[in-house]
Design a protein that fits this description.
mainly alpha; single chain; 13 helices; globular; transmembrane; EmrE-like; 0% strand
């Protein structure tokens, strides 16, 4: 299997695994910062166990290899998560989602300026079509307008793009261990500013499964993606959650999306499928020194 194919498959698998996250958050129905406090702690523990098994006890060595680039990835992951959660509470999920979906464009800009990566025309077209799909998904949803919420969502998208570009800048190093301190920092800030949620026993089990098993596995796969494909393409594949998340809620919580939402989701899925198939045998653009 070519490196490019490996990157696409790992990132897509990671997005499929993480897609029920919105369903779990909706089901828990607690203040986001309170959920993030425990989710960050459980995720850090689960990811540490998973990576310890993967590296056969040499996790500290793998974490040390990440260096200052890993510190940047950890900080970008932490504050991107916090900014997006805060943006949702201030400006509404619809507006925050639209702004957050700019991350592929921002990743493309960062990779072009910083890494010297050329952006293919098909990728530019895919970004445009995916953004159109996201706009369709949120078209019917009411949203409160907040300048601070809009700014936070833009910061979150920029930090996500920065995380992917940082990981892409060191293709020979696995940056997934850097997510452990990032998740711990999310947890610390969540406890300081949010506190502890009051959850039923089955809700704690659901949170433990999502944060302790699915999230560590998903983020490890997603963080590996930029080693073999561009940060822009990883950002495009992240839009799968925009489509799959509401479908989980529809299936299990019986909240049916409108025809407009279904149309937007179909546009994103078809665009990503065509884009991935078209570039299946192509190699990623080289990182220029």
């Amino acid at each position: 299997m070519q490196d490019r194919q490996k990157g696409v498959l790992l990132t897509t698998l990671g997005m499929l695994i993480i897609s029920p996250d919105a369903l779990v958050l909706r089901w828990l129905d607690s203040p986001p910062l309170q959920i993030l406090a425990w989710r960050g702690l459980i995720m850090a523990t689960g990811l540490a166990l998973l990576l310890s098994w993967r590296y056969r006890g040499r996790l500290l060595t793998a974490l040390h290899r990440c260096g200052w680039t890993g510190v940047g990835c950890a900080l970008c992951y932490c504050f991107s998560t916090l900014c997006f959660v805060s943006a949702v509470s201030l400006t509404g999920a619809a507006s925050a989602l639209v702004i957050f979906s700019l991350s592929p464009l921002l990743a493309a800009a960062l990779s072009w300026v910083w890494l010297g990566e050329r952006l293919a025309l098909r990728t530019l077209l895919a970004i445009g079509l995916c953004l159109a799909g996201v706009l369709l998904i949120v078209a019917d949803a009411p949203s409160g307008q907040s300048r601070s919420g809009t700014l936070l969502a833009l910061v979150a998208a920029t930090l996500l793009a920065g995380n992917l570009s940082l990981a892409r800048s060191q293709p020979g190093i696995d940056m997934s261990p850097a997510l452990i301190p990032g998740a711990l920092l999310v947890s610390l800030l969540g406890f300081v500013f949010g506190g502890t949620p009051a959850l039923a026993f089955n809700q704690w089990l659901g949170l433990a499964l999502m944060a302790g098993v699915l999230l560590p596995l998903a983020f490890m796969l997603i963080q590996l993606g930029p080693r073999w494909i561009s940060a822009t393409e990883v950002g495009l594949l992240l839009l799968l959650e925009v489509v799959l998340g509401p479908l989980w809620v529809w299936w299990l919580l019986d909240e049916a999306p409108s025809r407009t939402v279904l149309l937007g989701g179909a546009l994103i899925l078809v665009t990503l499928l065509v884009h991935s198939l078209h570039g299946w045998r192509r190699r990623p653009p080289p990182v220029l020194a």
